[in-house]
Design goal:
The protein has two domains: 241 residues, Bira Bifunctional Protein, Domain 2 (BirA Bifunctional Protein, domain 2); 86 residues, Anticodon-binding domain (Rossmann fold, 3-Layer(aba) Sandwich). The protein is 37% helix and 21% strand. The chain has 14 helices and 16 strands. It has an eight-stranded mixed beta sheet. A five-stranded mixed beta sheet has the order 13-12-14-15-16, sandwiched between helices. Strands 2-4-3 form a three-stranded antiparallel beta sheet. The longest helix is centred in the first third of the chain and has 18 residues. The chain starts with 15 loop residues before the first helix and ends in a 9-residue tail after the last strand.
């Protein structure tokens, strides 16, 4: 027997309706805000992620699925959605369109990491990408999309944390302060963070090692090093969120795990799924497009793990609606009736009625048991008398009511 790869998960027919429920909610929400779907390849040139995500990140250093194709080109399964969208934005000259460009995606992403509850090596993301605006109003809109999405699902135990990590200019000053602080305690850092110290000390703030966490607790705070422009942007965003009634907490330790972020960063953290509580993360990445060879185009967005979101909803006892079933099951008493049942079902489907008949050669009794177990709301039986009369009795399985109609007019009961 060949088993499923470690860190992946099958979505069974009994579970897929939950995904359909969320995807429908997402499409309605993004349409409300004027976002259009973008689809990018599952794999890209490795260089895209080296330049876009950052060579000092855990994603690039530890987690990417990278391979050589038959042309000896290095390819990588996408570990996140934003870099591919930025590449697409540049390659298709979307900056020539009226701005802002509003896009969303639903995509699988791949990271080679230790599988945990809510964290898989293949998982799926809902993401928003807004290109062309440097305004805090754009940041506020993106954050409000998440808040409204959670509210619409009935999720209330999710807290919003925001921060600003500044622009490259003020971040350099902050980076120097971090180097001085962590440099004085270099030998106490984990081996990975000792390497990060010179290359990108901000990454130390995101380290999961308990020793590094304790040291980082007293590190300099980025908000104390913001330039006037970044401070104004941050203050305006806080004011806009307050005006919109969006509750938030400023957490100066949030840096996110990707190097492309500038200014605003944020996380939505659930209280219902333990240590892996972040269900959505995002922020602003004003330099990503130019870093990948495009023009100077500001951008802001987020990524949300759907597996983790489903966990939150399940743990909170929230509804995904009903798992859809067929409408009408037509059982048959004999072989000739079975042919008529199949013909009738084919006709009903052409008219838009969800109907099924026996495909297993079961006895009539077994067919009725099947219809009951699979929760068909209506059942009809075709036998010799129904073939002769051309009429059939349709039973409502909920109230046991029966309605008789001509077989050729069955669809009228359901349309």
């Amino acid at each position: 027997m060949i088993n499923i790869p470690k860190g992946t998960k099958d979505v069974l027919p009994s579970e897929s309706y939950k995904w359909h429920f969320l995807e429908e909610k997402i499409r309605k929400l993004t349409d409300l805000y004027g976002y259009k779907e973008i689809r990018t390849p599952v794999f890209e040139h490795t260089e895209l992620f080296l330049r876009g995500v950052g060579e000092t990140t855990d994603i690039v250093n530890k987690e990417m699925y990278t391979f050589l194709d038959k042309g000896e080109r290095s390819m990588t399964l996408k570990p996140e959605g934003t870099a591919g969208v930025a590449r697409c934005f540049i390659e298709n000259a979307l900056d020539n369109n009226p701005q802002p460009t509003k896009m969303y995606y639903l995509t699988p992403v791949f990271r080679y990491e230790k599988p945990q509850s809510g964290r898989l090596r293949e998982h799926h993301q809902f993401g928003i990408e807004l290109y062309g605006s440097d305004s805090p109003y754009a940041d506020a809109e993106v954050i409000q999309i998440v808040r409204n999405f959670f509210d619409g699902l009935g999720i209330d135990k999710v807290r919003l944390y925001i921060n600003s990590i500044g622009c490259p200019e003020c971040r350099k000053t902050y980076s120097d302060a971090l180097k001085a602080y962590f440099g004085a305690r270099k030998e106490e850092l984990c081996p990975v963070c000792r390497e990060r110290l010179d290359r990108n000390p901000l990454r130390i703030l995101d380290c999961k090692d308990e020793g590094c966490k304790k040291i980082a607790a007293d590190a300099p705070v980025v908000l104390d090093y913001l330039c006037d422009g970044c401070r104004t942007h941050h203050e305006q965003l806080m004011s806009l969120l307050t005006d919109a009634g969006v509750e938030f907490t400023v957490n100066p330790k949030i840096v996110r795990g990707l190097d492309y972020y500038t200014r605003t960063v944020f996380e939505f953290v659930s209280e219902d799924i333990g240590s892996q509580g972040t269900v959505c993360g995002g922020g602003r990445y004003n330099n990503l497009v130019s870093d990948l060879g495009g023009k100077n185009v500001p951008a802001v967005g987020f990524g949300m793990g759907l597996e983790r979101l489903i966990m939150v909803m399940e743990n909170a006892g929230l509804s995904f609606g009903e798992n859809p079933t067929g409408t009408l099951f037509i059982a048959s008493a004999d072989e000739e009736s079975r042919r008529l049942a199949a013909k009738t079902v084919a006709s009903l489907r052409k008219q838009g009625v969800k109907a099924e008949c026996d495909l297993m050669g079961r006895s009539l009794k077994a067919q009725m048991k099947y219809a009951d177990k699979t929760s068909f709301p209506y059942v009809a039986v075709i036998g010799e008398s129904e073939r002769v009369s051309g009429k059939v009795a349709v039973k409502n399985m909920a109230d046991k009511g029966i309605r008789e109609t001509e077989i050729q007019k069955l669809a009228e009961l359901f349309i």
